[in-house]
Write a structure and sequence with these properties.
The chain is an alpha/beta fold. It has helices spanning 16-32, 58-81, 97-108, 122-128, 131-138, and strands at residues 7-11, 35-42, 88-93, 112-116, 143-146. The N and C termini lie far apart (33 Å).
Length: 148
Amino acid sequence: MSIFPTRILLATDGSEEAQLAATTAVDLAKSTSSELHVVHVGAGHPLYEASGYSGITEEVLDAQRLEAQRVLDEQVRMVEGAGASVEEAHLSIDERPDRTIVHLCEQIGAGLIVMGSKGRGGIRRALMGSVSDSVVKHAHCPVLVVRH
């Protein structure tokens, strides 16, 4: 029996912090012979649209979907370029990133989530929330938050 996870979920937003998390996830996956899954949650409708007001056109939504797919594809290429294989790439749009990451982790049976942190603190965190904080609080497996 191994203490290492058999499945690792790399949650990425394409940021500099996410690049460091990806490098860490690749090293872990390679050294433990774990499956590596990659997820990116792209921008969707802003929350204020729940009120029924929509100022976003289909063209804007299509552009957001294309950008989200580009980010995911770029991350997968980077992971594969570092010598790891991606078992599956997951793209989600119009969802809260923290909820999507936790749900996907449970769905695929990941034993570890690896993600970056932008390191927001104080008022910015209180106003904007923190995806990594929420994932740490709600995930049913270990979460490795990688910071510079």
